[in-house]
Every structure is written in structure tokens, then in C-alpha cells.
Design a protein that fits this description.
The chain is mostly helical. It contains eight helices and two strands; from the N terminus they run H-H-H-H-E-E-H-H-H-H. It has one domain. The protein has a two-stranded antiparallel ribbon. Helix 3 packs antiparallel against helix 7 and helix 6 packs across helix 7. The longest helix is centred in the last third of the chain and has 22 residues.
């Protein structure tokens, strides 16, 4: 049964529909579609709960100003910085792929560059840079700048952005279940 012929009472299978209808999606790995779907879900939670439905660089700056640091959170943030540093920096130069994030005027590209080059090392500045990267990935994915044909190449990038969002949601949210070993 294909996705478009299912009854309205069942859950629509978007992944199946994509695979049946988009040529560029035929070869996508299942984990790629899972990464994109997971990112959409986490962005929704992040923007709605942490940003109060107003995600922008100014909101990210306010979030980082009163974000409580912990050794575990700092370790996880540093891991994400390392991931993006290896992806976007070559020595002290930004790789071409960095500019494909398509920064806009108010996106503080200079701040992100400084953090990734190791010129700025404060915890809040690192978190801000990571949130800006996630925001650029969000805009590129949600506004069609990253087509399905390149998603396999972007899966780790998108997945890392999801991990960043989950860290901040957990560190900021009262709506997260209390558990042992929490990032907060």
C-alpha cells in the first residue's frame, strides 16, 4: 500500500511518500531521513519551549546569558565545537562548506568563526555559536536550500545540530523529566 492511498484515520507515512515520489530520495539511507525528522521535532520543541516561538540570534544570546553551566554540559558543548571545527575550519581558515550555511546579515558569522577558530573560548559564546549553526542548518533545511539529494552528506551535520538542541532544551527546561546523570 502506498502512502497516498492510506485512509485518513491512519498516520500518514511521510518517509514512504518521499521514497515513492522523489527521485532524489530513492537512495537516501534510512538514518538520514531519521536525522532530518528528528531535527524537525527537536527544532519544534526548542523554538516553542526555549525560544517562546521567537527563534533568532537575539533570543539565542538571551538564552546563553543565563544558561547554567556544568562540567558535563561543558564537555558536551566542547564535543560539538570539535565536530563543527573539524567540519568547517582548516587551520585558521574557514572551509568553503562553512559559507554554505548561508549566513544572513544578523547571524553573527564573525562570532561563529571566532569560536570555531578557538579565538573565543567562553562557555556562553560557544553555546551561542552552536545555536547559530543549528539555526542556519534549520533555515537551509526548512527553506529548501539543502535538497534531499545532499541529505546523506548532511546527516551527521543535521544529527549534531539535533544533539545541540537537545542539550539546551534539557539544560533550560522545567518540562524535562528529572533523571540521574542529567546534563543540567
Amino acid at each position: 500500500m502506498n502512502a497516498s492511498s492510506t485512509k485518513s484515520a491512519t498516520i500518514f507515512d511521510a518517509e514512504l511518500w518521499v521514497r515513492e515520489n522523489l527521485r532524489e530520495a530513492l537512495s537516501l539511507k534510512p538514518e538520514t531521513l531519521q536525522a532530518v525528522a528528528g531535527f524537525a521535532l527537536l527544532w519544534n520543541l526548542f523554538e516553542g519551549r526555549v525560544c517562546k516561538n521567537h527563534a533568532n540570534v537575539g533570543a539565542f544570546h538571551r538564552i546563553t546569558q543565563n544558561l547554567q553551566s556544568s562540567p558535563k554540559l561543558e564537555e558536551l558543548v566542547n564535543e560539538s565545537i570539535s565536530f563543527y571545527r573539524s567540519r568547517y575550519v582548516d587551520g585558521q581558515e574557514m572551509k568553503t562548506i562553512f559559507f554554505r550555511l548561508n549566513f544572513r546579515c544578523n547571524d553573527r558569522r564573525d562570532h561563529v568563526e571566532s569560536v570555531l577558530k578557538g579565538e573565543v573560548d567562553k562557555f556562553g559564546d560557544k553555546v551561542l555559536a552552536l545555536l547559530i549553526i543549528a539555526y542556519r542548518i534549520r533555515n537551509n533545511v526548512f527553506h529548501g536550500l539543502k535538497s534531499a539529494s545532499i541529505w546523506d552528506d548532511q546527516a551527521k551535520n543535521i544529527s549534531e545540530a539535533s544533539r545541540v538542541l537537545s542539550l539546551i532544551i534539557e539544560a533550560k527546561g522545567d518540562y524535562i523529566f528529572e533523571k540521574l546523570g542529567r546534563v543540567r
